[in-house]
Amino acid sequence: MRIIVHNAKCQGHARCWAQAPDIFKLDDDGYILPGDIQVAEGEQLLASQGARSCPERALEVDRTSAARFEPAAMQPRTGEA
Amino acid sequence: MAINPVPDHVPPEMVRDFSLFTSPGMPPTPNGDPHAAVACAHDGPPIFYSPYNTQDGRGTWVITRAADQRKVLQDTETFSSHRSIFSSILGETWPTIPLELDPPAHGAFRSLLSPLLSPKRVTALEPAVRERAIALIDGIAASGTSCDVMKDFAFPFTVSIFLRFLGLPDQGLDTFVGWAKDLLHGDDVERPVAARKIVAFIDELATNRRKDPVDDLMTFIVQAQIEGRRLTDGEIRGIGVLVFVAGLDTVAAAIGFDLAYLARNLKDQELLRSEPDRILLATEELLRAYPPIQLIRVATKDIDFEGAPIRKGDYVSCATMIANRDPEEFESPNTVDLAREHNRHAAFGYGPHRCLGSHLARREIVIGLEEWLARIPTFRIKEGTAPITCGGHVFGIENLILDWS
């Protein structure tokens, strides 16, 4: 799973960081660091909760890349984006 | 007080008899619930025109949906934040900074101030905040079994934290709270008087800090540089006034409404007292249910926005308390559910002007509730008393007498 970060939309609410500080790293001003985030297995629930907490909708959950690493049968698609 | 006539371009069917200032529940009301009262905005069209919806009696478009407020507040090119909300009280037009600057000018000032109120910095401030809460509540608990929450806790707590941040002594507290009250809730005579006092105070503080620098916010501002130059006197005043006004009333009001809710909902009160780990999440729900602020923008050009013919110069109101009761955004929006998850409420606004103090405000509310519940046994509204609530530009609550005898 990957989190697509739309930096231009980040306004420093830091709600993602409040949910998962190890996944969503902030700069000194409290805005998310640039670059998409590859989510380790086992952190997917936390990461998607963090992404869903963004008031600006700056974080997008992309499950397609995870599907490449695992057998399709193990990774049911939820249709959520 | 002047009330502007409805402009010709506003279709009569889009005008609604709704106002954050004059609708039922908005003037001072004993045992009122102004946040629940404005939820009725969702009974009508998603966008409408209110002929009287600012402190100085202007009409505004009212954006009710959270998704539409997000669009307005993120689109600073179409919806300017420069409306001189403070200086217009004095018949002037200078902006408070960074709130009333639009990008790109906004960015340099925002970057200057962001690190001072970042999540990291607020974490460092936390012990001092908690110490202040404990000292006040211990004093309250030791002196009886009832208190006036606003006077004895909410204002002294939030204002002293913010005075320390600004670098001001606690002795000024009552004076400053008095100015804020006159400014936000006063009449046409009181408001300019309060505004003039605040400006004079900030100007004098800047002069003093220039002469004798200390380790505080105003010294930081007078010494700061943006784009290789010092700030002008007007810019320093714009920042100082904004920080001063923003910190004085809002968090105290939020804490007051939150404690009033818990005093009336003993099951929830007991839940948070017995399981304090829930306070963090519960605070988000209380921020959703009881935010104090209305945000105003000014259209920079003609635009047909979601069916509303907004014209250049029109005022557009994004009331956070209305967005936070949007049934399309929140399931059962009028139910307070302290375990609500994925709570993307609008209490701190959206877009580049997201409340700069949001991280500090959150910590103050969480810590205030944690320490209050840990130290004060089951509390109720004192029998025979009635808290008085009001709507307006900043929602407020007064005379909140709690009793735990």
Automatic annotation (TrEMBL), chain A:
Task: Specify the taxonomic lineage.
Answer: Bacteria, Pseudomonadati, Pseudomonadota, Alphaproteobacteria, Hyphomicrobiales
Concerning SUPFAM superfamilies, the annotation shows: 4Fe-4S ferredoxins
Give a GO molecular function annotation for the protein: metal ion binding
**One Pfam family for this entry, by name?**
Fer4_15
**Assigned keywords, A-Z:** Electron transport, Iron, Iron-sulfur, Metal-binding, Transport
Question: From which domain of life does this come?
Answer: Bacteria
Put simply, this protein is called Ferredoxin
Q: Does the keyword Transit peptide apply?
A: no
Q: Supply the source organism for this entry.
A: Mesorhizobium sanjuanii
Q: Please give the PANTHER family that the UniProt record associates with this protein.
A: FERREDOXIN
TrEMBL record, chain B:
Q: Which InterPro entries match?
A: Cyt_P450 (IPR001128), Cyt_P450_B (IPR002397), Cyt_P450_CS (IPR017972), Cyt_P450_sf (IPR036396)
Keyword annotations from UniProtKB, A to Z: Heme, Iron, Metal-binding, Monooxygenase, Oxidoreductase
Q: Which Pfam families match?
A: p450
- What GO molecular function terms would the record report? heme binding; iron ion binding; monooxygenase activity; oxidoreductase activity, acting on paired donors, with incorporation or reduction of molecular oxygen
Cofactor dependency: heme
Matching entries from PANTHER family are given as: P450, PUTATIVE (EUROFUNG)-RELATED
Q: Which protein family is named in the record? A: Belongs to the cytochrome P450 family.
Q: What is this protein called?
A: Cytochrome P450
Q: Which organism is it from?
A: Aminobacter anthyllidis
